Amino acid sequence: MTDRETLDRARLLFVGDTQGDKLAREVIAIAERAIQKAVLWEELADQRALEIDALTAQQAARWEQVQAEADSASPYSYAVEDGTQ
Q1: Which of the residues 16, 29, 63, 82 could staple to 21 if both were Cys, CB 3.0 to 4.6 A apart?
Q2: pLDDT grade, residue 85 (50/70/90)?
Q3: pLDDT tens per residue across span 29-84
Q4: Cα separation of 83 and 45, whole Å?
Q5: Are the beta carbons of 14 and 21 closer than 8 angstroms?
Q6: Cα torsion for 40, 46, 47, 52, to the nearest 10°?
Q7: What integer is the mean pLDDT of 8-15?
Q8: What is the pLDDT of residue 79?
Q9: At 78, is the secondary structure helix, strand, or coil?
Q10: What's the CA gap between 14 and 20, in Å, rounded?
Q11: Are 4 and 35 in contact (CB under 8 A)?
């Protein structure tokens, strides 16, 4: 049984006007809000992970570009003859 199903069954159980039933309904409402927050946090975490992956890929591509530019501009990037002909 899922948490949602358990809360639905509990809500049907505590329908009276006693203090215990009122308190149980308040606890059920707190649990429902906690479930909603957990779903939102999970969605946010997934979104942030995608953003981090995209930024990491951009950074890696830019680093490769910078390295290639530096290698081509290096004064040591000319061919050296080894003297064997």
Answers
A1: 16
A2: low
A3: 999 999 999 999 999 999 999 999 999 999 999 999 998 888 887 666 555 556 55
A4: 60
A5: yes
A6: 140
A7: 92
A8: 54
A9: coil
A10: 8
A11: yes
Tell me the two tokens of residue 2. 């899922």
Residue pair 31/3 in contact by the 8 Å Cβ criterion = yes
Residue 61, phi-psi category: left (phi > 0), alpha (psi -120 to 50), beta (remainder) = alpha
> What is the total residue count of the chain?
85
**Rounded to an integer, what is the distance from CA 4 to the centroid of its chain?**
23
Scan for tokens 């899922």, then name that residue: 2
* Residue 81: per-residue pLDDT: 58
Neighbours of 24 (CB within 10 A): 17
Helix (H, G, I), strand (E, B) or coil at 10: helix
* Residue in the block written with tokens 């530019």: 69
